[in-house]
Amino acid sequence: MKKTIMSDLRANVHGVEMISKNKAGNFMFRKGYFYTMGMDEDKFAVNVEANIRKLGYSVQVIGCGNHWTPFNGRAPIQRQSHFWVEAKIF
Known about the structure:
Elements: H1 5-12, E1 18-21, E2 27-32, H2 41-54, E3 59-67, E4 82-89
Antiparallel strand pairs: 1-2, 2-4, 3-4
């Protein structure tokens, strides 16, 4: 069976709740939070980049950010408070 980049990332990138691809073909990594507990978008980006490099892929971080919104427990991660990283993987 052929191993895809997405399955490899989902199995081995730790500290991430959601991995998807956007319209541009870049990978989006998200981690939701209620309290930040000292985490910020830069620390999250460094963690994601380090995990991807350990897998042997080249990575270029396109952007990272902190999306804050009032708590809604029923909403998906994209509509809750979360840190995000957009990365191009080679």
